[in-house]
Specification:
With 446 residues, this protein is of the alpha/beta class. It has helices spanning 141-144, 165-175, 190-203, 220-223, 226-241, 252-265, 279-287, 315-323, 357-379, 386-403, 411-425, 435-441; strands at 7-8, 11-15, 18-22, 38-44, 47-57, 60-65, 77-84, 86-88, 96-98, 116-118, 135-136, 149-150, 154-159, 180-188, 209-215, 244-250, 291-292, 298-306, 326-331, 334-335, 341-342. Helix 2 runs parallel beside helix 3 (190-203), helix 9 (357-379) packs across helix 10 (386-403) and helix 10 packs antiparallel against helix 11 (411-425). Helix content is 32%, strand content 24%. The strands form four sheets. Strands 9, 13, 14, 15, 16, 17, 18, 19, 20 and 21 form a ten-stranded mixed beta sheet that branches. Strands 1-7-4-5-6-3-2 form a seven-stranded antiparallel beta sheet, with no helix packed on it. The chain has twelve helices and 21 strands.
C-alpha cells in the first residue's frame, strides 16, 4: 500500500484536472502500492493539492486533482496517503456548511480534531435491513395524500430547468418530520446555495441540518464527492445514533454530467449520449444507501433529477427510474398526480394513516381524471352533461387546494379538505365509496 513517506516523480501526462503517472508493480503476494479511490498529495514547489485515484491499469495510475492542474508540471511530487477520502462526523457537523472537499465553508470553528469516516463504502447487508413501514410527513398534500414518502425510500423529483424544484426541495427539508437533514448540492449557482441556506435558517431547521455544497464555480472533480460525503454522514447518524435521516441531493444530472466529463478526460469509451457505460451502477451505488436499519435509524434519499428537454428517456432519468422506488414529477409549477408514483405508499396508507386515506386518494384521482376528460370535451366545444360540470368544478378546486406547491397542511387536514371538496361537487352516491366511510366522514353541506 502507498505511503505518504514514499514520493513519486513519474507523472507522464496532465489532461484537464487529471494526472497520470507510473508506479512500480509490487512483487507477487505483496499488497498493491496504490488502490482505487485512494487519496494522494501532489506538490510542486509551494503548490500542494489533493487528488484521488480513479483508475489503476498495471503501472499507470490516473488521479483527479481537486483544485485543478494549473501550475503543475510533470516533475511534481506525488505521495499516496493509503486511504480513501474521509469526511468529518460528529455532533459538531450539525448546523455547518462544508465544501466539496469536506472542509468547513462557513467561517466556523475548525473540526480537524473531530473523528473522520471513509466515504463511498459498500451498501448495507440486506440481513441488517427491515421492510419500510414508517411514513415521513411533509405537509405537502400531493405527497402525503397521494404518494407518501416512506422512511428508507429512495425517490427523485423529475423536473426541468426553470421549475422551482430547489425551492420545493428546501421546503420538504424544512417541514419533513426527520431527525436530521443532510443536504448535498452539486453544481449550484450562488443564488441557489444562498436560497437553501436562508430557507433552512429562516425555518429553524438549520440546527439539525448538515450542508455539503459544490458550487458551479468550484472544481468539477469535487462534484463527484458530494453525494458520498452526504451519505457517509447520514449513515453514521442512522447507525450510531439511531436517527431518522433525510438526505436531499440536487442535482443528480449535474453529478452524472461530471462523471461523463471525467470519463471522457480519462479516455473511457462513452456509451449512450456520451455518458459512461457504468452510469447505472454509479447511480445505484448512491441510491442503495437508503436503508431502514434493523438496529438503528433510517436513511431516506430525496433527490432532484433534471430532464434535459423534458425527455424522460434521457440516460440519467431513464437509469434513475430503474433504481428508485417511484418519482415525483414536477412541471408547470405543480406536482403531476399522474406522472408521480410512490411504490412504497401501500406500506403505510391505512396502516399508519387514517382508515379513509386509501379511499379518498383513489376517489379524488379518479374524479380528477374525469375532470381532465371533461376539460378536453369543453375545449373541443362538445356538449357537457351535468356530471361533466360537476367534474370541472371539482378539478378547479383540486388544482387550487392540492396541486399548488404553496399548499401546506397536515395529512388529516388534507383528508378532511378532500371530503369537503367532494361534498361540494358530488352527492354521496356519486363517489362510489364504502358506505361506512361516507356515513362517518362525508360532511353535511347545507
Amino acid at each position: 500500500m502507498g505511503s505518504a513517506n514514499t514520493a513519486y516523480h513519474s507523472i507522464t501526462e496532465l489532461v484537464g484536472d487529471l494526472v497520470r503517472l507510473t508506479v512500480p508493480v509490487p512483487p507477487e503476494g505483496q499488497p498493491p502500492l496504490v488502490r482505487l479511490n485512494d487519496l494522494a498529495v501532489v506538490r510542486q514547489g509551494d503548490i500542494v493539492r489533493l487528488a484521488q485515484v480513479i483508475d489503476v491499469r498495471d503501472q499507470q495510475v490516473s488521479m483527479q486533482v481537486f483544485d485543478g492542474t494549473k501550475g503543475l508540471a510533470t516533475d511534481a511530487e506525488v505521495a499516496f496517503l493509503g486511504h480513501p477520502m474521509q469526511v468529518t462526523f460528529s455532533d459538531h457537523v450539525l448546523g455547518r456548511i462544508f465544501n466539496g472537499k469536506g472542509e468547513p465553508a462557513d467561517n466556523g470553528p475548525s473540526l480537524q480534531f473531530d473523528s473522520k469516516v471513509d466515504i463511498g463504502g459498500p451498501t448495507v447487508n440486506p440481513m441488517r435491513r427491515v421492510l419500510a413501514s414508517r411514513m415521513i410527513r411533509t405537509n405537502v398534500p400531493m405527497i402525503d395524500v397521494f404518494n407518501c414518502l416512506v422512511e428508507s425510500q429512495k425517490i427523485p423529483i423529475f423536473s426541468v430547468s426553470g421549475e422551482p424544484y430547489n425551492a420545493f426541495l428546501a421546503r420538504i427539508g424544512n417541514q419533513a418530520d426527520a431527525d436530521i437533514v443532510v443536504f448535498g448540492g452539486m453544481g449550484l449557482g450562488f443564488d441557489d446555495f444562498y436560497s437553501f441556506r436562508k430557507s433552512f435558517e429562516d425555518s429553524g431547521a438549520f440546527a439539525r441540518t448538515v450542508m455539503f455544497v459544490n458550487q458551479a464555480s468550484d472544481s468539477i472533480v469535487e462534484r463527484l464527492l458530494v453525494p458520498d460525503m452526504a451519505l457517509a454522514v447520514a449513515e453514521r447518524f442512522a447507525v450510531e445514533e439511531g436517527k431518522r435521516v433525510l438526505v436531499l441531493l440536487t442535482d443528480m444530472t449535474a453529478y452524472a454530467d461530471a462523471l461523463k466529463e471525467i470519463g471522457i478526460a480519462n479516455e473511457r469509451v462513452p456509451s449512450n449520449r456520451g455518458y459512461m457505460g457504468d452510469l447505472y451502477s454509479q447511480l445505484a451505488r448512491r441510491y442503495e444507501k437508503a436503508c431502514d436499519y434493523a438496529k438503528g435509524g433510517s436513511v431516506t434519499i430525496l433527490s432532484v433529477t433534471t430532464m434535459p428537454g423534458n425527455d424522460v428517456s434521457h440516460p440519467v432519468p431513464d437509469n434513475t427510474g430503474y433504481i428508485t422506488e417511484g418519482q415525483f414529477y414536477l412541471h408547470d409549477g405543480e406536482l403531476d398526480p399522474f406522472g408521480s408514483l410512490s411504490r412504497l405508499k401501500q406500506q403505510v396508507i391505512g396502516k399508519q394513516t387514517r382508515e379513509d386515506h386509501g379511499q379518498v386518494m383513489n376517489t379524488m384521482i379518479r374524479l380528477y381524471s374525469g375532470a381532465r376528460d371533461a376539460q378536453q370535451k369543453q375545449a373541443m366545444a362538445f356538449e357537457l352533461s351535468d356530471y361533466d360540470q360537476q367534474l370541472l368544478r371539482f378539478g378547479e378546486q383540486f388544482r387550487q387546494h392540492f396541486m399548488s406547491l404553496e399548499s401546506d397542511m397536515t395529512l388529516e387536514q388534507a383528508l378532511d379538505l378532500g371530503w369537503q371538496i367532494m361534498a361540494q361537487c358530488f352527492r354521496p352516491e356519486q363517489l362510489l365509496m364504502k358506505q361506512s366511510l361516507i356515513q362517518k366522514y362525508y360532511p353535511q353541506v347545507s
